[in-house]
Amino acid sequence: MRITPFFTALFLSLSVFSQPVKIGLLKYSGGGDWYANPTSLPNLIKFCNSKIKTNINPEPVTIEAGSAEIFNYPFIHMTGHGNVLFSQTDVINLRTYLEAGGFIHIDDNYGMNEFIRREMKKVFPDNEFVELPFDHKIYSKPYIFNNGLPKIHEHDNKPPQGFGIIINGRLVCFYSYECDLGDGWEDYEVHNNSEATRTKALQMGANIISYAFSE
Questions:
Q1: Which fold has domain 5-214?
Q2: pLDDT tens-digit readout, 168-185
Q3: Are the C-beta atoms of 210 and 141 separated by less than 8 Å?
């Protein structure tokens, strides 16, 4: 991650005191269930801290799109099934956050595609989502996914796709579509996914975390 002045003080304090990094869950307006998959991020954090030796606070923090507090969290996760609506304050805040070095992972839990595309176009009017090639770094470290995103849940018989928004040569937003990673991160009894499926989902999540903190 390219650290800009907005994040310099944060990372210096973390390095000096060896405090865990906090990551955020984005709360947004519009009626969509931003709170979906409540066990997913805690499970992903636990997996990353155990398997790839990250130092992330076990509990993610809920953060609103327009809040100045977003700058305390270098990684933001967003999910849901329905409508998303960013106010003008949200748009300006998210654009500033992402241009300053922040990173957002958007995981379509099924049903948010048209809305997130519309709203992210407000954030970056001149930048489109582009599908990332399978040889992109996000698919190769620390776990190798030669065919891109793993398929976790079937919805419309479409292949999973990973899209990105790239600003000044840096991937600032990764959007997982027709994949449902978050469902694979949840506790086993929520969806009864096989251990192999859950492991694939968690490994891909670890790749996203790793990429966000290293590029």
A1: Rossmann fold (3.40.50)
A2: 999 999 999 999 999 999
A3: yes
